[in-house]
Amino acid sequence: MKFIRPLAVVATLIFLIGAAWIWGNRSVKVDMADYAPADSLAYLEFNSLTEVANSIEQNDTWKTVAPLIGVNAVLGNHWLTSVSRVGIGPAAGVIFSRAQIALVVMGVNTAEQDDVLRIKPEVAIIAETHTSKWRLKPVAIDSIKRLATFAYGESQCTERNGDADYVECSAAGGDRKIVGAIDGSLLVIGNSEKSVRSCLETRRGLRPSIRTDPELLKMRSSLNAVRALGFGYVSSENAAKLFSIAAPLLMGKAPGDRQLEQLLAASAGKILRGVAWTSKSAGGRIEDRYLFSLEPSVITRLEPAFETVTEDDAYWNLVPDTFQSMTIYRTKDPPAGWAALGSAVALKLDAVSSVLFGSLLRSSLSVYGIDNPKEVLTTLTPPLLTIRPSPSTEGSVLLARVHNGEGLRRVLANEIFKGGRGQILNGIESEPDSEKEFSAVFIDDYVFVGKTENVRPCLLALRSKQVVTSPGRLDQSRNFPSSMSAVLTYANDEARLTSFITIMALLKGKRLSGEDVNALRRAVGTSSFSATETNLNSLGIERTTRSAFGQFSTILSLVQSDSSNALGR
Questions:
Q1: Which position among 35, 307, 417, 419 has the lowest Cβ density within 10 Å, counted as fewest Cβ atoms?
Q2: CA 365 to CA 396: how far, in whole Å?
Q3: What is d(CA 60, CA 92) in angstroms, rounded to the nearest whole number?
Q4: Which one, of 47, 194, 45, lies nearest residue 106 by Cα?
């Protein structure tokens, strides 16, 4: 008995010392927005890599394909992860379990090369590892070198000291490079030294951070980002800037016209308040939610465009089974919805800008040969669909229910297809003349309108009865959660899924053979479609997408090497 009391005292002391050590080594979350420059074009944050890994492990598609390609579906040891969070275990495991990650896009550079427009974003990854520098540095250096090899193939790497410890890796025979900086517990990796230094200066308080933007804080709260796997934000100014780069493409012009881009950016900035994104695991898939915050008066003007009506399912019999993407517009009154879009834009813009944005709206239908949307829309009734018939077609067709066939034929003949630029046909047995640029084919109560080269595959599919009502495809589409949203989009994500899983296999040390890739494609074929609902709420336009891996597959593809991209071809 005389040994029991001293033993209890020693045990208590050991317990208290251990508890104090664990408490002292716990990682305290920081706000990663404090590390991102205020002028970042786009900002993404992931506050728990283990939660992201867990969501992939629980993903239905990953569970299906992992055994087929010979990799473990479990991405890590959950018990070891829990231990690593308190600083116990191998350095790499400790860093992974404790790190918070942010990704910033600092700028977008465009250049023409061999008549092809090349877009190169300037990006940086910021990692607050909550780990001492002596443990972080060797892991960080090794990771930077591995990343360079993975992204560029054979690379030359050098190390140097300065205001931080730097590692620079350059692609052999090219100007692409990766720059990494280790500053205490912080690791910054970018594709330019400028982007890395900008992040270091922000963390040191030498330049303002994006956390100073009140709209970011508001959107975090509105989207409940604290419970999300990831959160992203683009400010009003930068959303307008990105729009000004992309919008000329809709008008058939190449980016680079500074005067046009400045006008578009200034105009868009009067309408857009900002863009935000969150991601979460939902039903064995990933749900991405996007919010395009708008001025309140603009939201009010847009309401007619988002009033919906219940439609029948007859259109599914006209959708090719091989469609690559399809968007269903359920606007109750198409002409009123179109007018609402123009009214919302004109509300905030001057006369010149209104004309410019009006031409952008019209260009969205001009690809189908429709230059006078108002007259055409008065002859149609919901739903209206835009369909890309197959992966091999570049463009899409418009499929709509007709309520005034004579009026539509008259408008097509006299206004749209005049001068021999188009043809009007009837029935699925029609044979469009390839010399005519556009075709309109009436089938029962519906009409296909678009470029002849895109209408023809639809007719071929109908004649061979390869439509969505074929066994399996319609059921697969119906499995997506759907409400009576104003706009519903389905897209075939097979290529993105295959790329994501191929990269995941490479990261786990498994290079897929051609046979593996074919098995993978067959497996993801049953879950390769994403569904996106678009609605209007009190803050703006909200889009919710459910897909196998969501935007995580897009983000991971940014570091995909040329060699891995060619796998399976």
A1: 419
A2: 11
A3: 28
A4: 194
Question: Total domain count for the chain?
Answer: 2
Locate all alpha helices (DSSP H) within 101-162, ordered by sequence.
Answer: 133-152
pLDDT recorded at residue 268? 67
Angstrom distances, CA of residue 176 to CA of 135, 149, 230: 29, 12, 28
Q: Are residues 178 and 313 in the same domain?
A: no
State whether 445 and 553 are in the same domain. Answer: yes
Contact between 73 and 62 under an 8 Å Cβ cutoff? The reply is yes
Q: Which of 165, 181, 210 is the last residue of a domain?
A: 210
497: left (phi over 0), alpha (psi -120 to 50) or beta: alpha
Q: Per residue in 500-518, pLDDT tens? A: 888 877 777 778 777 777 7
DSSP 3-state of 59: coil
**DSSP code per residue over 520-566:** HHHHHTTS-EEEEEEEE-SSEEEEEEEESSTHHHHHHHTT--HHHHT
Q: Which helix (H) or strand (E) holds 475?
A: helix 473-478
Structure confidence by residue, pLDDT tens digits, 245-266? 666 655 555 555 566 566 666 6
Confidence of residue 392 (pLDDT cuts 50, 70, 90): confident
And the tokens for 404? 């005034």
Q: Where are the alpha helices (DSSP H) in 309-404?
A: 334-348, 351-366, 373-377
Q: Assess if residue 230 is contained within a domain.
A: no
**Is residue 425 in a domain?**
yes
Q: What size, in residues, is the chain?
A: 569
Quick check: 381 and 447 in contact, CB under 8 A? no
Q: Name residues whose C-beta falls within 8 Å of residue 53's C-beta, 6 or more positions apart in sequence.
A: 75, 76
User: Which domain does 81 fall in, by range?
Assistant: 46-210
Cα gap 416→414, rounded to integer Å: 6
* 182, β-bridge pairs: 165, 187
Single-letter code of the amino acid located at 323: F
Distant-in-sequence, close-in-space partners of 248: CB < 8 Å, separation ≥ 6: 254, 255, 257, 260, 261, 264
Q: Is 195 a member of any domain?
A: yes
Task: Indicate the helix (H) or strand (E) that contains 24.
Answer: helix 4-24
The DSSP output letter for 568 is T
